[in-house]
Amino acid sequence: MHVSSVEERAERAKDKKAIYGTDVDLESYESEARPHEVVQQAEELPSAVKKAALDVGVKLDKESSGAYVQMDQTPVIAKSLYDGVEIMDMASALKKHDYLQDYWWKLVAPDADKYTADVAQSPPAGYFIRAKKAMKTVFPVKSCLYLGSTNLNQRVHNVIIAEEGSELHVITGCTTPSHVQRGLHVGVSEFFIQKNAKISFTMIHSWGKEVEVRPRTGITIAEGGSLSNNYICLRPVKTLQTFPTATLAGKGAVASFNTVIYSSMGNIDVGSNVNLNAPDTSAESISRVVSVGGEVIARGRMTGMVPGVRAHLECVGLLLSEKGRIYSIPELDGRSKDLDMSHEAAVGRISEEELEYLMARGLSSEEATSVIVRGFLDVEIKGLPEELKQEIKNITQREDLKGA
Amino acid sequence: MVRLLDIQDLSVSIGSKQVLKDVNLRIDPGETHALFGPNGTGKTTLLNAIAGIPRYVVDSGRIIFKGQDITRMSMDQRARLGIGMAFQRPPAIRGLKLKDLIKIINPKSDGPAILKEMDFEPFANRDVNRGFSGGEVKRSEMVQLLAQQPDFVMLDEPDSGVDLENIKLIGDAINQLTQKDMRPSQRTKSGLLITHFGHILEYMKTDMAHVMMNGSIVCSGNPREILDQIKKSGYEGCVACMCPA
To answer: What is the mean pLDDT of residues A385-398?
Structure first.
């Protein structure tokens, strides 16, 4: 797709509402951001940014394959520490690699809705990460998208390419410092997982009570490739809507989605959409939602196009307050014979039997509740940093859960 | 000597149905009692009422434990006071590892040693009771009680679903919990056990047995004699023979 046609399509979609989620008034946000100083080492980042990154489990000075940090619209560091991985800011990458035109806006349509249109009409900012052919990295690439200015519309467009036989782990933390009262984050991400390549992608969101979030993600997985996608959002957010779409395009491709949500307010509409288009592909999507307030819509859609595919959806919600709502929508769309698709959905309260069992061992009602919720949220995501596991454990100790 | 447990004229209902009628039961420190009776007669209800499960409503009577009236006390308070229970069919808890629960129950307990003792080490990192077989569930219960170290332990059919090899392990654990390895004069811990077939009694020591019929204790006596009589002539026959009205 030529750049001009991307812009034309975006222009036509600039008022197009998204299918899901509440409508955001883009005009009410500022699109001009003040620039930030670029640094050479992650250690030189402002301490507020390093601290915010830590809060979302991104330890920038620890072992990693590289780092990308974007403050508002400025990529302040894009650095690879490993030959096998290329990390650049998107604007520079587009200049350097002509071939990127074959990837740019190929998995997310610029005219999908007004958010993608808005990103398409803005100067490119975001990360480009490429795992080179057959390069297997152990340490993750760590990235932090930091929305540091009140009222800003932060637009990000990321591209990840895992070349044939490569292995790449990415941890992205998206966050605002507490002084940011209001903001919008729109992130377009396109992931290309080539033959026999493997990506694990873990995204942790920690926003403010007046922040709106609209990630737009498209993923394609070629023969023998695999994706493990983890999404965690445990802090309050005003509105959030995302429905990443993965297409299993080659024989034997595998996708797994884990979603963990702890909601106390706002409107959260999350899910995953997987198209199983090739033989022997399989997909699994597990979502765990705890609500002590706010509305959570947990979606999951799997579409099986050819014989022999396997898909499983699990949407389980714990509703702990009168003020909350959990709306679980698992969808299975079988369009061929000989496929195997299933789902399990449940919304409920904490089982009295489990509570009593733990109380019989001497735990108070609050302690027992906390232990059960903690266990519920523990989806055993592999490769998660220890700090983040701790963060998930800590979350259930919070005041707002007491007496639930 | 203060009685460890003193149940006085206890009547308990579940919903609108009265299950226990004027139950009286006294257990002294160091004693372990067995409770026999047909299905649905109220044995589990008695244990659950002593544990304090809220659904089991005490209509009249009192439960005195260590000299304190615990009739209205919450479950966790009772547990902290020294009451422990091995559930007949405990729930599974997703995401809670057995080794972590052991630590939560008693931070000072030696988890690895307890797991080893119950030959249960491979289950340390498993979610509590999740996907456990009937016998494994019973060993999981014993592991948790060995961590909790209650002064009074209630065992609701600890032998059901347990194979012959593991029944001895369970019996040993109960003997340990009820201090049967110590001299009678030194024992302070007590127990109350429900068993249907009495297999477990071959591996553990009991001091007294009771027969419950229709929500009341109708006969008490020597465990071996009562069990033999039940096997010979059924519950009613046993009561007619051992405890004629």
So the answer is: 58
pLDDT tens track for A136-154: 988 889 899 999 999 999 9
pLDDT tens column, B115-138: 999 999 999 999 999 999 999 999
Q: Under an 8 A CB cutoff, do B94 and A360 touch? A: no
Q: Hey, are the CB atoms on B76 and A357 less than 8 Å from each other?
A: no
Q: Is residue B56 part of a domain?
A: no
Q: Which chain B residues are closer than 8 Å to A358 by Cβ?
A: 93
Closest Cβ opposite residue A359 in set B76, B94, B96: B76
Verify whether the Cβ–Cβ distance A354 to B93 is below 8 Å: yes
State how far the Cα of A324 lies from the Cα of A268, in Å rounded to an integer: 11
Between A171-180, A239-248, A326-335, the lowest mean confidence (pLDDT) is in A171-180
Residue B23 maps to a domain: no
**B209 in a domain, yes or no?**
yes
Establish if A356 touches chain B: CB-CB under 8 angstroms.
yes
Residue B54: what are its φ and ψ, rounded to 5°?
-55, -30
Number of domains in chain B: 1
Q: Which residues in chain A touch residue B85, judged by CB atoms under 8 angstroms apart?
A: 360
Q: What tokens does B78 get?
A: 């009772």
Using CB atoms, which residue from B74, B95, B105 is nearest to A374?
B95
DSSP A306-350: STT-EEEEEEEEEE--TTEEEEEEEEEEE-SSS-EEEEEEEEE--
Cβ of A353 within 8 Å of Cβ of B51? The answer is no
| Number of neighbours of residue B80 by Cβ within 10 angstroms | 16
pTM of the predicted model as reported, rounded to 2 decimal places: 0.85
Say which amino acid occupies B45. Answer: T
Q: Which of A290, A318, A356, A384 would you mutate first to test chain B, the one with the most B CBs within 10 A?
A: A356
Helix (H, G, I), strand (E, B) or coil at A92: helix
- Res A325: pLDDT: 95
- Give the DSSP letter of residue A136: B
**CA dihedral sign, ordered A104, A107, A110, A114:** negative
Range of the domain at B211: 31-40+82-242
- Of B75, B84, B96, nearest to A359 by CB-CB distance is B75
Distance spanning both ends of chain A, measured CA to CA = 52
Contacts of A98 (CB under 8 A, 6+ apart): none
Pairwise CA distance, residues A278 & A293, whole Å: 40
Whether B180 and B206 have beta carbons less than 8 Å apart is answered as: no
Residue B62 in any domain: the answer is no
Rounded Cα distance, B126 and B131, in Å:
9
